[in-house]
From TrEMBL, chains A, B:
This is DUF1993 domain-containing protein. The lineage of its organism: Bacteria, Pseudomonadati, Pseudomonadota, Alphaproteobacteria, Hyphomicrobiales. Pfam families: DUF1993. SUPFAM superfamilies: DinB/YfiT-like putative metalloenzymes (SSF109854). It comes from Pleomorphomonas carboxyditropha. InterPro entries: DinB/YfiT-like (IPR034660), DUF1993 (IPR018531). It comes from the Bacteria. Gene3D superfamilies: dinb family like domain (1.20.120.450).
Length: 168, 168
């Protein structure tokens, strides 16, 4: 029994992105029931200098496609960050899920010690793939996923932990 | 090269619990500077039916000690959930870190397919250790960690993503 790199990335991202769609659909239908515009729900944030819900979803998907691409040594697809509606965000999540599914496990497995170069705003980091995944991509992904949930909860949407942990 | 079960649990929990102390210390000192009581900061929440900051910290540590115990087939230490101050929460996090450090890697590694029984309020689940870790313990841990961060940000505390990803 061994644990493979692909297995600690792709299935996690896939399950939780599908849960993110589930969360957003509740926010969409509840927002509509309350007469809130999509713009109001997707523009909600927890602090004036935090990103709005829409951007949390965009960044969550960015970390997923960035992670799968870096783990496999591939180029990540580029998304233009122009989503304005729930439907457009679902389409972005679908494109992300399709990219995750398109990366063969064999292209990832065994590469845990491969050096990943991460260009951030203020620095360039070189990390092993496993450290990048566990110390950067996954924490960032959960950060934006949970913050999306927290924004919806702060709006009073009827969500609970079961929705966060939702599995298809 | 293989990935071991202990390596995808203990180092992640340890690094992020230390970051949680870092986040709380900023909340503590900024709260004090603003004349807020510890009770006010630790009692803050994002929605009336969500847990307050203090409880988010308690549950985050519960998932860590529960995970390390289940992965190793040990009993988790029991904490009485009576913390009322920052100092008491730091002590709880320290006890959790000490428990994580006390579990030998050899007691965990190789047990990824061992069945873990999870008694939840409404159901009892049986999962392999790896599915429990990745589909339950880690998402729950990040959920409460991020929500603690989000509560502090919602209070206007001067935090950023770098603090969330903080490493000693």
């Amino acid at each position: 029994m061994t644990i493979e790199l692909h297995a600690i990335a792709a299935p996690v991202f896939t399950a939780r992105l599908k849960a993110l769609v589930h969360l957003l659909k509740i926010g969409e239908s509840e927002g509509r029931a309350r007469g809130l515009s999509e713009e109001a729900v997707l523009g909600a944030r927890l602090a004036p200098d935090m990103f709005e819900l829409k951007r949390q979803v965009q960044i969550a998907t960015d970390h997923v496609k960035g992670a799968m691409a870096r783990l496999a040594g591939l180029e990540a697809p580029s998304f233009p960050d122009n989503e304005q509606t729930f439907a457009e965000l679902y389409a972005r999540i679908d494109r992300t899920l399709a990219f995750v599914a398109s990366v063969p496990a064999a292209a990832v497995n065994g590469r845990e010690e491969t050096i990943v170069t991460l260009k951030l705003r203020q620095e360039t980091m070189e990390l092993t793939a496993i450290d990048y995944l566990q110390g950067f991509a996954i924490p960032n992904f959960y950060f934006h996923l949970t913050t999306a949930y927290d924004i919806l909860r702060h709006l009073g949407m009827p969500l609970g932990k079961r929705d966060f942990l939702w599995r298809q």
